């Protein structure tokens, strides 16, 4: 067991909510090795029911899930157990969602890819220290791709509406959306 967890107390329950089953399974295994007692959920509905049945001391919740918004799980967790330390994890970071997550009870907001060490540090961090600037910044292509993804989501995944808002031809947008994200 790590030294970090000795000071936390007896309740080391951790709820992991992510619709990527392989990722959440690997993360649960890694967090269990760090002394947490993990349980996993693959959807908003499953996460909320687990939060209502046995509110955990810690939680890591993905923002975008197949059946809805992970912020609904964060809100349920905060209502059931105000002292629950919740981290919101997402591949689609935006200032507006980060602010919303913190307002409803999240203590931090991490963008993917985040490993178990980053998550453990964020869950256990008590200080008010500002985070260090990122070592490797996103490329211009990655920033463009993420902006397109945000607008696409805002338009409820409607390609024609997204193309109109971005002043882009619909076919060009379809080709961009079909490609993998740039590094």
Automatic annotation (TrEMBL):
<comment type="function">
    <text>Member of the two-component regulatory system RegB/RegA. Involved in transactivating anaerobic expression of the photosynthetic apparatus. It is a transcriptional regulator that is responsible for activating expression of the puf, puh, and puc operons in response to a decrease in oxygen tension.</text>
</comment>
<keyword id="KW-0010">Activator</keyword>
<dbReference type="GO" id="GO:0003677">
    <property type="term" value="F:DNA binding"/>
</dbReference>
<protein>
    <recommendedName>
        <fullName>Photosynthetic apparatus regulatory protein RegA</fullName>
    </recommendedName>
</protein>
<keyword id="KW-0804">Transcription</keyword>
<keyword id="KW-0805">Transcription regulation</keyword>
<dbReference type="InterPro" id="IPR050595">
    <property type="entry name" value="Bact_response_regulator"/>
</dbReference>
<keyword id="KW-0238">DNA-binding</keyword>
<feature type="domain" description="Response regulatory">
    <location>
        <begin position="13"/>
        <end position="127"/>
    </location>
</feature>
<feature type="modified residue" description="4-aspartylphosphate">
    <location>
        <position position="62"/>
    </location>
</feature>
<dbReference type="Pfam" id="PF00072">
    <property type="entry name" value="Response_reg"/>
</dbReference>
<dbReference type="InterPro" id="IPR047772">
    <property type="entry name" value="ActR_PrrA_rreg"/>
</dbReference>
<keyword id="KW-0597">Phosphoprotein</keyword>
<dbReference type="InterPro" id="IPR011006">
    <property type="entry name" value="CheY-like_superfamily"/>
</dbReference>
<keyword id="KW-0902">Two-component regulatory system</keyword>
<dbReference type="GO" id="GO:0000160">
    <property type="term" value="P:phosphorelay signal transduction system"/>
</dbReference>
<dbReference type="InterPro" id="IPR001789">
    <property type="entry name" value="Sig_transdc_resp-reg_receiver"/>
</dbReference>
């Amino acid at each position: 067991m790590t030294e970090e967890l000795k000071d936390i107390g007896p309740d080391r329950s951790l709820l992991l909510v992510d619709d990527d089953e392989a990722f959440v399974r690997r993360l649960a295994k890694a967090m269990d090795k760090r002394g947490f007692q993990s349980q996993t959920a693959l959807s908003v509905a499953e996460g909320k029911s687990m939060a209502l049945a046995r509110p955990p001391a810690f939680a890591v919740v993905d923002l975008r899930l197949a059946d809805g918004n992970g912020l609904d799980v964060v809100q349920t967790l905060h209502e059931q157990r105000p002292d629950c330390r919740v981290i919101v994890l997402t591949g689609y970071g935006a200032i507006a969602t980060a602010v919303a997550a913190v307002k409803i009870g999240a203590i931090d907001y991490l963008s993917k890819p985040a490993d178990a060490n980053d998550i453990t540090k964020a869950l256990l961090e008590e200080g008010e220290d500002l985070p260090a600037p990122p070592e490797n910044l996103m490329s211009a292509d990655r920033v463009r791709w993420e902006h397109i993804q945000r607008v696409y989501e805002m338009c409820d995944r409607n390609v024609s509406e997204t193309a109109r808002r971005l002043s882009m031809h619909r076919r060009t947008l379809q080709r961009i959306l079909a490609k993998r994200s740039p590094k």
